[in-house]
Each structure stands twice: as C-alpha cells, then as structure tokens.
Amino acid sequence: MAERLRVLVADDETTIRAALSALLALEDDLHVVAQAGDGHEAVEQARRHRPDVAVLDLEMPGGDGISAVAELRRAVPDCAVVLLSGRGRPAHLRDALEAGALAFVAKGAPAGTLAEVIRGAHRGERYVDPALAADALTAPPNPLSERELEVLRLAALDLPTAVIARRTNLAGGTVRNYVAAATAKLGAASKAQAIAIARAQGWIR
Questions:
Q1: How many Cα atoms are found within 13 Å in the side-chain-facing hemisphere of 175?
Q2: How many C-beta atoms surround the C-beta of residue 26 within 10 A?
Q3: 8 A C-beta contact, residue 72 and residue 49
Q4: Which domain holds residue 87?
Q5: Buried b (16+ CB within 10 A) or exposed e, 95-116
Q6: Residue 77 region, left (φ>0) first, then alpha (ψ -120 to 50), else beta?
Q7: Domain final residue pick, 116, 136, 156
Q8: Does 139 have pLDDT greater than 70?
Q9: Same domain, 93 and 190
Q10: Please, which pLDDT band fits residue 107 given cuts at 50, 70 and 90?
C-alpha cells in the first residue's frame, strides 16, 4: 500500500476538530498525525510532526487560519495548507491565497470532498469553494487604503486613539482623520458601523 498522507487538523472547536479527524481517518490513504486548537499550536504541531497537509480553520484564537498560513509555510515549506471556513468572504479568499494556502473549503462540504481537496493540495493543486468563487466575481472592490484599513482594524479592537497613534506612528489627529475618511468611503453613519461593514466584507478580521 502507498504511504499515507500525514495530515494536521486545527480548529478551536474540539467537537469539530475531533469529527474532522475521525472522518479523515476513515480514508485509507490519510493519517491524522496531529491536532491543534489555535493558529500558534498548529504551527508548533506542524514543526513537530511535519505533516504533508495542514487543514486549518479560518477563524481561531491565538492567530487565525490566514495569519498562521504564512508562518506555517515558513516553518514547514513542504506542507500544503487547506483552509476551512463557515462564512468566508471574497477578501478572505484573496488573503488566504496570498498567504500561501492552496485550497479554501466550506466547513459544510462533504468529507469526501475535503479528502479529495487534501490529496489535490498535496499534488500542488488549487481548490476554491464554488460558492465563494462566484461571490468573488461580484464582490465590491475595497475602497479603503492600507493606512485606513490598518487604523480601522486597530479601532475595531476598541483601542484609544492615543494607543492607535503610538502603534502606527501617527499623530492622534491623523488617526481620527483616517477613521473619518474610512467611515465616509463606506457610507457609514459612525465608526462602529464602518467597522461592521468592513468586517462583513472581510476587509478586516
């Protein structure tokens, strides 16, 4: 029998992680060698177990799936990465592919589909959930500049203007101007609404 593919499964929900691992274990050519509950643990487990493919949840504490992809790819370059999402957005798709993921799969996809995607990723093949790919074709462009996104992302953490200013090396007034510009560009009535719109579109997480 051919050597089985070594798979890492990372999801912050224990029941989902266990269910995915159990379903993949039913495939004769797949072997789940490690599990992780967040992005940081996923990278550490990948360093330790050297999987062929890592299956990561998009949204996890301690480093989400997308932010873990680049670090994992640096730590274990030969490991292909598949991202799972329950509510992906076109912007998430772009970020995932730019970070080095080869596949983006809906969490509700059949186990057989995920297994095939894992095999394909190991061969270097890309896969994108068809519904997400269709949405990406009609998604509105992101009107915000990188600075506006950076400031809005920090504002979403409910940080005071002074703290955001220190982190971005900007003056407090400049931070407020960026927030105001982002709010206007998104047609929002408030900073909170601007953050909600940006999150809904997947421009900030």
A1: 20
A2: 10
A3: no
A4: 5-136
A5: bbbebbbbbbbbbeeeeeebbe
A6: alpha
A7: 136
A8: no
A9: no
A10: confident
Q: Is the pLDDT of residue 188 over 80?
A: yes
What's the CATH code of the domain at 170? 1.10.10.10
Contact 65, 55 (CB under 8 A): no
Return all residues near 200 (Cβ < 8 A) that are at least 6 apart: 89
Instruction: Say if 170 falls within a structural domain.
Output: yes
State how far the Cα of 57 lies from the Cα of 104, in Å rounded to an integer: 10
Cα-Cα end-to-end distance for the chain: 43
pTM exceeds 0.85 for this model: no
Residue 119 reports pLDDT greater than 90: yes
Q: Is the pLDDT higher at 170 or at 63?
A: 170
Note whether 193 and 109 are same-domain residues: no
Residue type at 100 in one-letter notation: G
Amino acid (1-letter code) at residue 126: R
